[in-house]
Amino acid sequence: MQVATGISILNGIGIGKIRIYKTPEYKINESLVEDAIPELTRFENARLKVQAQQQVLYEKAVVEAGEDSAAIFQFHADMLDDDDLLDAVKTIIVDQKHTADYAAKHGFDNVATMFSEMDDPYFQARSADVIDVGNAVVEALLGIDTSSLQGTEPSILVAEDLAPSETVKLDKSLMLGMITREGSSNSHTAILARSMNLPALIQCKDIADDWDGKMAILDGYNSCVYIDPTPDLLESLTAKRNEDLKKEALLQELKGKTNTTIDGKTIHVYANIGGPADIGSVQQNDAEGVGLFRSEFVYLNSKEDPSEEQQFQAYKRVLETLAPKLIIIRTCDIGADKTIDYMNLDKEENPALGFRAVRICLTRKDFFKRQLRALLRASAYGNLGIMFPMIISKWEVRECKEILAECRRELENEGVKVSDNIQIGIMVETPAAVLCADELAEEVDFFSLGTNDLTQYTCAIDRQNAKLERFADTHHPAVLKAIQMTIDAGHRHNTWVGICGELGADLSLTETFLRMGVDELSVNAKSVLPLRKQIRSIDLSK
Ligand code: PEP
Ligand code: MG
Questions:
Q1: What's 185's domain CATH number?
Q2: Which of 427, 434, 497, 506 to mutate to test the pocket of ligand 1 (most atoms within 8 A of CB)?
Q3: Among 393, 491, 409, 376, which residue's Cα sits nearest to residue 445?
């Protein structure tokens, strides 16, 4: 077995035979011509032919990869109306008396080189588009047909590089994956592969002609390809691929559908995330929003206290990419099991009952304000909810809101845009919060039940202690009663109530939660689709 690595552009697995995709070598006519006019006419005909082809590719790509990804072909067609680009070719014909194919090859290449030498990555990536269109024009001039290169058997395609137009021309039903030696993860080929949901590896430097016809596994999760895989590996990755296929089928079944029970009750299903790296998982699992962004991971992933700017960038990326979905960002919930050196927190006898979460934030006001300012600045880029963790008293919520208002005033005085539409909520994860839920509900737009801590504090069961497994009943009646009490109290005050602890993903409780009147369930991204399916199978009228 041989293993070759590259950069994966989609988490997926492709299993099948390799097919080497090689564009036929062609020869450009280098001899000079006497009369430039017929060459200009040849070039013009080829230009119009390719422009029409790009239109056809655009329509195919809209169906296979969506409007956004298809836009590149519109761009290609428009490029063929660009006077500067066309002049780069025509001058070679007219001034140097070269053939149309020579002029097209060199004219487009010159412009592509100019782009590739620019500092801006956007323009660098456009270089590939110019080459793609240039190749199409040269192929049209030389009458080259690439339609048979893919073959007729399903395969993993291996190529030096694949231009967007080559990628979209391929028959998707025969594609098990694609691997290229070149390419960048921002290229349109990569974008197309992603939107076509095709496992793909780029910059795989070890590709070789003798892979042709060999059995292979493209493992997008681990950014590698196994040539002639062992039977064990084949078995385990086939199982993983089948799991992905099931999920994909579920996604297709549920995409765009509301989370409505048979008798018509609709609730929101959101995903829990730890930072911008999880944006893809929200999209891939078609979550309606983010019910819990554990912002402490932004702190845990940083060697030093992250600046306001660093935090702003992280929050903005999530809000902007996922807009207009609601993104609930929980303020820093550090302490207990989540410790950070640069915070210099004292060692405590009972850290779970100690100086943690909002208790730290309300004590270290500058630290808290840095986060709140970053959140408020990011709010202008999407639909933000802010949630305070470990609340036990009304005064804590009030103080959090006062500091938030202070940050808003500061930013507005600085001329910084802040959204007027930010929902404010608290985590309900202590018995104190449950018992005071009526009072707390007056202060906020939403409650989110943190059932992990709520179970720990209600049942006095340390969630970190494996020895207590036998005593830790996740369905403990006290916890379920606390959930019901919180939902009822919230609803008495027009405060919506969700669950963002692990219990929200427990399918054996979905019906119970719906009967209790929960408005939202926020679960790990992997559980989103199974939960949505479960909700749609429940009939509360029975
Ligand atoms: C919870 O306590 O249920 C919760 C969602 O927060 P965390 O697990 O991050 O403490
Ligand atoms: Mg918690």
A1: 3.50.30.10
A2: 427
A3: 491
CB-CB contact of 130 with 112 (8 Å): yes
Q: Which atom of ligand 1 is nearest to the CA of 389?
A: 6
Residues 125 and 185 in one domain: no
- What average pLDDT does the segment 385-401 reach? 98
For tokens 């609803």, name the residue: 491
Q: How many domains does the chain have?
A: 3
Q: Which residues make Cβ contacts (< 8 Å) with residue 183, sequence separation at least 6?
A: 161, 162, 189, 190, 202, 203
Neighbours of 405 (CB within 10 A): 11
State the ligand closest to the CA atom of 330.
1
**Which residues are known to be catalytic?**
188, 500
Res. 302 pLDDT band, cuts 50 70 90: confident
Which DSSP symbol is given to 24? P
- Decide which of 77, 108, 142 is a domain's last residue: 142
Record the tokens describing residue 483, joined without a space: 């959930």
Q: Which ligand is nearest to the CA of 499?
A: 1
Co-location of 156 and 117 in the same domain? no
- Supply 436's token pair: 């005071």
Question: In this structure, are 13 and 95 located in the same domain?
Answer: no
- Ligand 1, atom nearest to 502 Cα: 3
Calculate how far, in angstroms, residue 328's C-alpha sits from the geometric centre of ligand 1. Answer: 14
Query: Sign of the CA dihedral 323, 327, 331, 333?
Result: negative
pLDDT at 340: 87
Which pLDDT does position 194 carry in this prediction? Answer: 74
Atom of ligand 1 nearest to the CA of 448: 5
Ligand 1 pocket mutation pick from 453, 455, 456, 499 by most atoms within 8 angstroms of CB: 453
pLDDT > 70: percent of the chain: 99
| Reported confidence tier of residue 188, pLDDT bands at 50, 70, 90 | low
Residue 308 maps to which CATH number?
3.20.20.60
Distance CA 183, CA 50 (A): 23
Q: The domain containing residue 61 runs over which residues?
A: 36-142
Ligand 2 centroid to 279 CA: how many Å?
Answer: 21
For ligand 2, a single-atom ion, which residues have Cβ within 5 Å?
A: 429, 450, 453
Mean pLDDT of 186-190: 70
What single-letter amino acid sits at 442?
Answer: E
Q: What is the mean pLDDT of residues 219-245?
A: 94
pTM above 0.70, yes or no: no
Query: Which atom of ligand 1 is the closest one to the Cα of 452?
Result: 3
Q: Give the C-alpha distances (Å, rounded to integers) separating 219 from 16, 108, 160.
A: 12, 36, 19
Residue 29 domain flag: no
If one residue of 329, 337, 428, 429 were mutated to test the ligand 1 pocket, choosing by the most ligand atoms within 8 A of its CB, it would be: 429
Pocket of ligand 1 (CB under 6 A): 292, 294, 333, 429, 450-453, 500-501
